[in-house]
Amino acid sequence: MESLRDIRQNIKAIRSTQQIMQTMKMISSARIRKAQQTMDNARPFAKKMLDMVADLKQEVLALPEPQDGTESWASRFFVNKTADAGKIGLVVITGDKGLAGSFNAVILRAAVAFLKENQDKEIAVFCIGKKGRDFIGRLKHKNIKIVYDSVGIFPKITYAHAELLGEAVMKEFFHNKLASVTLIYNDFKSMGSQRLVQQELLPFSLDQEVKQNDETEFLFEPNVSEIFRLLVPRLIKANMYRILLESQAANLAATMNAMDAASKNASDLADALGVKLNKVRQAGITNEILDIVNGANALNG
Amino acid sequence: MPKTLTLNLITPQKQLLNALPVQAVVLPAAEGEMGVLPGHIPMVVKLDFGSLRYTKDGKEEEFAVLGGFAEILRNAVNVFAEGADLADEINEEEEKQKIKRAKESLSNKDADIDFELAELEIKQAIARMKVKKRHLG
């Protein structure tokens, strides 16, 4: 049987771990409010941009194309007919730390499935978050290459981070003629739940619902290609920004829930040990009394 | 013919104006300021650093816009700006400080700083100050 001292020590250890978990939960819940607000503020920009691209659909398809079989810069991001089908890109966004339940595991599982499915292609991977970078860095496959990574940026995402990531994705996409770029990240659904999202970012899909005055002809100032040169990077970056903020909020929510559950478990465990401690102590006392009574009886006998 | 335009002013960080009904908008287009009235033809314009003004019920409001572009469609003006500040909220003293700090870091050759960023900061501060001066009149 365990001694009283062992049990007491055990309880103490559990209680102090619980305190740490409680604190981590509080930190997450304090940060999440701000994260959620930034996210809500950033949502309209990305959404309106997509609406605008839908408006400009006709114009994109009518872009003047060079005659020598090459493709214009803007068209690459929409139609992308001169891409190399053997090359694709993947953006994986995980957290920097564990202790967030299945937050990272879900993403990495999806990433592995994606990589397996496309193992005959050259895959350029963009990793955000330490967990994803370390995990994918350990995969030794000749077709998988990490071309960009950024760690330790949570929970302080700014637009500058999105710009860096967006630049890197755009450069790789354009110069290495990637056929597509897919995103895997966790969407912030509510405080209690995250949703895994796997979505194709590039090329931009143009088959969105056709609006009624789709026939409208636009005037462009200074000219159409200049506008697209401006629009495409912003669209990518705005999307990246939104997605990073979604991940950030989702990560904080996951940490909060995981820590809440863990601290409840610790509390249950400590209570159970407390009961055991009392039992053991009581058993000891009963034994001592029995000894004394028996001894007295023997003397009187 | 509708009498009002719907104005949206959005930056990556924040939506500053959400579907505000206005009578007229002046945009800091790259090729010169451009006035927009209800019934304007569909258009996409590149914006420069400069002043965005709108008239609502006879009153004029002004923003300092730091580049971007605007879409005019279906009687709505959607302004996608890199940054935007309400002219009334611009503090000239603060902007001067920003310029001073950026210039200091530019003159410090050893420091590991981003020259482009520092220069951009100066440009932005100057643009904000210009709009503020214009606004005061």
Radius of gyration of chain B over all CA atoms, rounded: 17 Å
| Distance linking N and C termini of chain A | 33 Å
The appropriate CATH architecture of chain A is 3-Layer(aba) Sandwich
Order of helices and strands of chain A: HHHEHEHEHEEEH
Tell me the structural class of chain B. alpha+beta
Largest sheet of chain A: 5 strands, mixed
Please state the average pLDDT score of chain B: 86
Quaternary organisation of the protein chains: heterodimer
Report mean pLDDT of chain A, rounded to a whole number: 86
Rg measurement of chain A, Å: 29 Å
Query: At CATH's second level, what is the architecture of the largest domain in chain B?
Result: Sandwich
User: How much strand of chain A?
Assistant: 5-15%
What structural class do the secondary elements of chain A suggest?
alpha/beta
Query: Which overall shape of chain B is indicated by the principal axes computed on the Cα atoms?
Result: elongated
* Residue share in β-strands of chain B: 35-45%
Number of helical segments of chain A? 7
- How many strands of chain A? 6
Of all chain pairs, the largest interface belongs to: A-B, 28 and 25 residues
What is the CATH class designation of the largest domain in chain B? Mainly Beta
